[in-house]
Amino acid sequence: RRCSVRLCSEIWLNLTGRKYCNITQSRRIICTTCRIREKRDRKSAIGGVFVEFFVLFQEASGIGWITLNRPKALNALNASMVEVIEKQLAIWKENPAISLVCIEGAGDKGLCAGGDMRSFYDEKDGDIDQHALDFFATEYRMNHALDTFPKPILVYMDGIVMGGGIGISVYAQNRIVTERTRMAMPEMNIGYFPDVGASYFLNKSPGQMGKYMALSAKTFTGSDAIYLGLADVYMQSEKWQELKEGLQSRNWEPLSTGETTACLSSLIASFAQATPPPSHVAQVQEKVDRYFSKDSICEIFDSLNNGAKEGDQWAEETYALLKGK
Fold first, then answer.
1. How far is CA 27 from CA 30, 51, 59, in A?
2. What is d(CA 14, CA 188) in angstroms, rounded to the nearest whole number?
3. Per-residue pLDDT tens for 33-69?
4. pLDDT in tens, 249-298
5. 74: left (phi over 0), alpha (psi -120 to 50) or beta
6. Where is 25: in which H helix or E strand?
7. Cα dist. 290→150, 181, 299, 302 in Å?
8. CA distance 318 to 324
9. What confidence category does residue 7 fall into, taking pLDDT thresholds of 50, 70 and 90?
10. Which domain holds residue 196?
11. Are 261 and 269 in contact (CB under 8 A)?
């Protein structure tokens, strides 16, 4: 079945019988992805069909805005979301009216908690292997599109930023963290491996810190992220709305890439905290380098175990943590 419904006098929705569909809007929000489901317990805006917009795209004053819009799921990424983000980046890449891209998460919990692992459980009775292949292939193409995007990208990394959420943010040129930022590559906790390019960007961290973060799946703060090379700017979260207003008050469209980069850096700097709080992970750098400077996991385990036997409490705790994975 197919029908068209006019909503709020400007949004045109094409509703199909499929679980997911793409939506086009004529004015400011130009594309979304959504889940459509029947609501029988209460009246909805579209005659019994409830529509959740999982990604919002907006063009304004030369800025392309991407809002991850699944706050109840901590903005976790599903296959439909990563697909439309990749496609929209390709459109904005060629659009001279777009000078920069800004990415944020809806709600007050965070940018993105990573990939939607629940979707794999939901496919357990179907072709789960194909579902996994499709999801990860599309997600990695999206990561590549972010990394190779020729225009400046700003990402607001407030709250939870984990796994695929780091994949959304780490390739940007303007990565803003706050006092609320909590980050991790937690894949080891579910028997997977740190993906979304982690073997590339974690290897840029100081010393052996990349190995430590990958194997331990430890949660770290915004100031830690700057120390690890995964973020650029520390800002109090209360300033984000004011920074957004500053972004929206300017016309970025006529600026060259170089001019946009310079102007954006200057604007962000005016809201940034000059000196971030001390990094917690920096304080254990020496221990991380001592125990993780090995060529295999077995050697790292032996090194930590030997340190524990010599009375190093940190080595003992880290050894127990890794053994529990």
1. 6, 19, 9
2. 40
3. 444 433 333 333 443 344 458 999 999 999 999 999 9
4. 999 999 999 999 999 999 999 999 999 999 999 999 999 999 999 999 99
5. left
6. strand 20-25
7. 39, 28, 12, 12
8. 10
9. very low
10. 61-283
11. no
Find the CATH number of the domain harbouring 164: 3.90.226.10
The CA distance from 267 to 252, in Å, is 12
Asked whether residue 92 is assigned to any structural domain, the reply reads yes
Tell me, yes or no, whether 196 lies in a domain: yes
Q: How many domains does the chain have?
A: 2
Residues belonging to the active site: 115, 164, 187, 195
131 assigned to some structural domain: yes
The pLDDT score that the predictor gives to residue 123 is 78
Q: Do 117 and 197 have their domain in common?
A: yes
Give the 3-state secondary structure of residue 123: coil
Q: Note the pLDDT tens digit of each residue in 233-261.
A: 999 999 999 999 999 999 999 999 999 99
202 plus 272 within the same structural domain: yes
Residue 231 near residue 157 (C-beta atoms within 8 A): yes
Residue 16 has pLDDT above 80, yes or no: no
Is the residue at 97 inside a domain? yes
Q: Count H helices, E strands: the chain?
A: 12, 14
